[in-house]
């Protein structure tokens, strides 16, 4: 697990919120792409960029020339950035965004020709599935911030995040069927996010839905005008980052576990989760602070 | 089972539909809170009020000074009012509403401090879970009528009802995370009512959603202007109360049972339910009445 | 299996898109209702009409005088038309529509009186359930095109299709409860399409929802003005028909199978589906065509 090399500092970019304000460079381990500096960093071997400030980690799909295709390299880079010091109490929330007009176009088709062969194909889909499941099993909330087109495994990535905020110009599609490759793995995440009729029309026709439709049907939690996308995403991220990390971790794990259980089992599990939560130092601190009408001071 | 003491007559209240028209007092057993009279009744030991007319039982969370907190006493009172003569053919539908600007603020935090200890905490969550499951297993439809803020276990109560009608000024939140207590048990009901991204944004940020958003995402079945809330809820309740009680009971039980089954098992179960339904006296009476173009006369 | 007699040619009808353009008559086996000709065909023993062109099969519920009731004869006729040459590579997509102002009123109540008895009732519900499950297990996508009222098992039929397009004047209800027969089998499909509160209000009150509400809640994938219904449905059908049939069949089967699995199992299944898909001739042809910037030529 090469997670230690997972995060790199972001050099100053042409636009966007990442370079506004004093984003401190991370540890050397994070800065594997070379020194941050004025101007666009030279393209390196790793196609994601990550940095972290105030508990908020930003991971940016950063291969716009290839429409941020989820190549095996991109998937491993993303996985590494998500896993990097996942247990650190300094990490509170992760935002996944993308550079350029396409959030992500999904798998890199050059990796799926028969020259590569079924074993390589299997590795691609297995790695992709692991990244998507990692998002759910990760201890901190993970937010997708989408500004543009997200297709196929790119749409799957949005559907797999805990929260998804998009600009109103964004759109979403699973167009694999157009090139004879049905979006079966994206359908796992899509089919758990939107009603099945919406999912099937997308899967069978390959046609996109708008951000508003995606919100209507549950693929997004929020849609905002493009100029407010970063502000709104950061507002949510800061709110999440202000919470107790152990409490969020406990709650997130319980949420996904109970979701597929029968009602009695789900209540049995979560009632125990509530008791465990109250046994955490932050559980008692929060209630005491509330009753004493003061701000809680979390243990981390 | 203290159900016999579960329902009390409502004294005349300052406003609201309950005192409009000739609501007959219920049996003595229901009137444990003291005589109904002019003016607000004195606060008694039980924090819910219930009365019944024309097959419609109204249960009112009636502790507005404590924002209708679901204390253990409130939960037991609610449970008792729901269970009271549940098998009586005179009961057709239950409405749960609340007094004051807050529908319910969820658990009483004073019951969750470490002075009480984990055993007491466990009793609180277990009782709460039993009430929520009771709503689903109860033979008659249960409607939430919401006019105001419903948070945490209060939001869970709305999500657990079969039908939920709210005024457009209502809002819904699971803010436990703000005080270090993730709303894990409310998440069971919430996660089965709204898309997971909506649920997780609510759970991770603690921020409220409006009634319109709640309708959009499936937490409510209907939103109306405040001045039409009682009228619309009563219209639905009367429609439900006009149906055959044994038919509703059979159908409600089958609905929840099939919902988590695989498709083939679900159709096997419900096909048998249909045959059983036709074997009920009301099943044949309804069809005969329809074919004879007359109103059915139900057996109860 | 009387599928060979399942499809009949449509005679020229008074209105509608089916007779526009050169719809070739199908094989003799399809034309069991008599010769196509000017004017309305004489009512025959089979209450559905079907014909096929350019890979698109149209099945029309064609008993408007009885509000297209899903009698046992109608269900068997529909089943036969769906199953007819289901494995033929010439069939790409099926549209189910209806003649007259009512899409379908559900079961024929004359078949559900106690004169028929529980064995006959069981056959009706079992056949109906088989048709609904057949829609999901069928290798090609099946689209409901709704222009009018769809109630009870008629609403179930819409909910069971893969895609559902409706005119804005359409409406949907499960009113069985009004005649003492709770829509328990329709609830299987309805409860998997819309949020449970919406489903339960429909089931408990019997009241209809509009096409817009049905879209909002996931029962439909698309709503259009009545005058654009055929055009929009045909646009979707043609798009689906332009895809590779084996790819669609693989993807459709995987979609429904993974939907009820836990996440890990679902990704394991669908990752294998992706690899299998790439192993299909059309899988490699599609990717090659894309990389070579040309239109793919499917094997069928």
From TrEMBL, chains A, B, C:
InterPro entries: ClpP/crotonase-like_dom_sf, Enoyl-CoA_hydra/iso, Enoyl-CoA_hydra_C, Mitochondrial_ECH-domain
One annotated GO biological process: positive regulation of cellular response to insulin stimulus
Pfam families: ECH_1 (PF00378)
Subcellular location: Mitochondrion
Organism: Ovis aries
Top-level lineage group: Eukaryota
Name of the featured protein: Enoyl-CoA hydratase domain-containing protein 3, mitochondrial
GO molecular function: hydro-lyase activity
Family: Belongs to the enoyl-CoA hydratase/isomerase family.
């Amino acid at each position: 697990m090469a997670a230690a090399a997972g995060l790199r500092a972001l050099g100053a970019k042409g636009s966007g919120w990442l370079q506004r304000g004093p984003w401190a460079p991370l540890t050397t381990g994070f800065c594997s792409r070379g020194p941050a500096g004025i101007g666009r960093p030279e393209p390196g071997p790793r196609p994601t960029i990550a940095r972290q400030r105030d508990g908020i980690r930003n991971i940016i799909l950063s291969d716009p020339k290839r429409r941020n295709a989820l190549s095996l390299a991109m998937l491993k880079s993303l996985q590494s950035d998500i896993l990097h010091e996942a247990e650190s109490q300094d990490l509170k929330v992760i935002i996944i965004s993308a550079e350029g007009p396409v959030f992500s176009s999904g798998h890199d088709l050059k990796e799926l020709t028969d020259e590569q062969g079924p074993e390589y194909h299997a590795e691609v889909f297995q790695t992709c599935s692991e990244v998507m499941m990692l998002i759910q099993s990760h201890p901190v909330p993970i937010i997708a911030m989408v500004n543009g087109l997200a297709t196929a495994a790119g749409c799957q990535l949005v559907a797999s995040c805990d929260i998804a905020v998009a600009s109103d110009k964004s759109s979403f599609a699973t167009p694999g069927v157009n090139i004879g490759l049905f979006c079966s793995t994206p359908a796992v995440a899509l089919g758990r996010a939107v009603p099945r009729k919406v999912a099937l029309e997308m899967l069978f026709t390959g046609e996109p839905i708008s951000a508003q439709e995606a919100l209507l049907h549950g693929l997004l939690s929020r849609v905002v005008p493009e100029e407010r996308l970063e502000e709104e995403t950061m507002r949510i991220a800061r709110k999440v980052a202000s919470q107790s990390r152990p409490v969020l971790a406990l709650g997130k794990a319980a949420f996904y576990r109970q979701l597929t259980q029968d009602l009695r089992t789900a209540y049995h599990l979560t009632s125990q989760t509530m008791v465990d939560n109250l046994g955490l130092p932050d559980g008692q601190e929060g209630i005491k602070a509330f009753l004493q009408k003061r701000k809680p001071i979390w243990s981390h």
